Amino acid sequence: MFLSSRAYGTIEPANLEAILSTNFQDRSMGPRRKVMFPFFGNVVDSLISVLPEKGMVDLQPLFFRLTLDTTTAFLFGDSINSLRASNTAGESTFASAFNTAQDFLAKRMRLRDLYWLVGGRRFTAACKYVFLDFLEKHTLNRTELRDQIINILVAGRDTTACLLSWTLSDLRHTNYLQHVLKETLRLYPSVPVNLRTAIRSTMFPVGGGPDLKAPVFVAKGEGMAYSVYSMHRRPDFYGMDAELFRPERWEEDLPMNEDPINAKWGYLPFNGGPQTCLGSE
Q: Is the pTM of this model over 0.70?
């Protein structure tokens, strides 16, 4: 139970298959649109130019700006050029407003139907800052456009930036590098926990009964949370050293491969089914 509303949590691949694929039509995103409504509603040369000639630099904040610039360039035909913005104390930028809004959204998501308890002027200002002004230059129908583009904007920025923080090049044919990337995403998936809401009464295939093998009834309106982060660290799937970063495990016959459902749904850094994340490509 959570705030008088029943919700279920799972890390079973069979249940994730049901949520994301076989019973996909029984689920929805729940109050996510309302939770994120204020946020919804209302390039390499640049990266190189801001790098210091000497010394160490934290690349991840710059990668977040880079992917934000490239994504807005793709969506609007014009980049917001957040990499070129001044980084002096007290100066707001689109990138910093974007980060502030996402921090608030994470807290609002945890409260589900009580999302409205978290907000305020800072959240509202972050959601409206620059983005609406930017849209005005490119479309007259901002309401319709913003709802369509925000999912691509979020997917194109965060997932790509996190992955870029670990590698600088796309060496698809370098096997060990692929193992490193998979192991990184196994231990630190971009979306560690996700949530769906039943729009009609449905079932989890497993999780009930004394042996946890029986189906579980999920009534309409009840929540279903799944933690890819926890599933990726299961010793019965990845070995007794599942908590360790060891890329070599991907050259081995992992325990999860003994079952076809576990093999297909036991590793989900980009979700699965009809809503597979665009970042997978």
A: no
